[in-house]
Specification:
Number of domains: 2
Low-confidence stretches: none
Oligomer: single chain
Strand content: 15-25%
Order of helices and strands: HEHEHHHHEEHEHEHEHH
Number of helices: 11
Radius of gyration: 19 Å
Distance between the termini: 35 Å
Helix content: 25-40%
Strand order of the largest sheet: 2-3-1-4-7-6-5
Amino acid sequence: MMPDPSKLREIAGLQTPLIGFYDVADPKPFAPFADPERCIFSAFENWQNGESIVISEGNCSCQGGGYWIGGVMPAWVQKKVDTGEDPLKVFAKGLNQREGFKSSDALMEEWLENLKPYLIENEYVVIGPIKDDQFEYIKTVTFYVNPDQLSLLIHGAEYNNASIHSHPVITAFGSGCGQMTAILGNFDCDVPKAAIGATDMAMREHLPPNILAFTVNKPMYEQLCDLDENSFLHKHFWERLRNARA
């Protein structure tokens, strides 16, 4: 049975559509499509209006996005590789000297070695509003939420967990598109996992200032949709919080 997020959306007060990350051979069922300006998150408003974006290997509006979704090095890296330099070393040095996100170029290179990009399994990646008839191709679902809603979803992710050594929710440094895919790609896809995202400064200009992302894999999405009347969704703390914001 298909997961039904309607009750969760209603109780959480989620107004923005849930955004799916799909890996497909045929993108046509996801039309209409938008053409983002460089950063793929410039399509955020398009997603709200029911449009999707399509990425294929080597064909992404953002060169950084093309690396994190597809594993293709940016053109400026490839030019230097022709001289015999190591592409990952060139990429790390160029990123760090331009953006200054790590204390050394070597540390940036090590980080890139440890966090692998998402490699497209079929021909296309589609990012856009959830389509129930395409659920078999979905890799992650992203909720765009305010801090109160983020609190609720974290509670939901912890609902079936008792471990203090293996947490179902992670947060990590990375690009916005990497936080949708690559970070969760390091985990068993059958284990419910979630990642707090939209913390990348380069993409946040395309989002409202009070919005963060909560990205979940398929089993975690199913778990959240299964929260029932016995859960915290129907208890007094969430009701009190919503009343306080009214």
